[in-house]
Amino acid sequence: MTRSIREFDPCTSSRLFTIYANEAVIDLLQPYLDKLLANLTVRIVCKHSPAIEDEQYQDLQMQKVDLLIDIVPPKLKMFHFQKVAQERMVCVVRQQHPSIQQSVNRDQYFAAQHVMYRFHRDNMRVADIISNELLPQRILYSEQSSILSMLSLISKSNAIGIAPCTFSKSYAELFKLDLLELPFETRPIELFSIWPSKHVQDKSCIWLRQTIETLMEQAYSA
Hints:
single chain, alpha/beta, D-Maltodextrin-Binding Protein, domain 2, 2 domains
């Protein structure tokens, strides 16, 4: 019996699935996964996506990983994808900031020092991805490859930053942060689940995709 038509039961299977995703997605998704898997024998492990885009797709094609969650849909026809969530970005400042409270205007935003989060891919910065306009140069305070590190640093300084709203809400009270609307027009960041086209009829992979779609909807609507 071929893999594509083999039956799959998550209550009896010992299958281990592996997912690539970014820091914020894993942080939000993991509690929902833990709850779902508590009474199942199947396992799902989340790993941080490789910094190099080609590497993550190679691992997906070579079955080293079963599913990829990314902000950019694949260009190659050998992969299928589906939008599973979207996330708006917010301006993050520490509570009791000396000049920014409750809201931030354009002048305040561009006059402030910035903790910047840089995506690994193409060295992109968040503001330039989500903005509908070409933004003026910002004053760099620090550059981080971890969103959590960025939030921690903002909590200890007068620098500001941009971060995913849903993720930041989880840590706003802990780090004593205010989440404010950005003073320029933006578009949300979309999140896609991506899998090899050759597994489109695989029962186990269908279960995984549907499960992740459901949990992502729960995580990003909470």
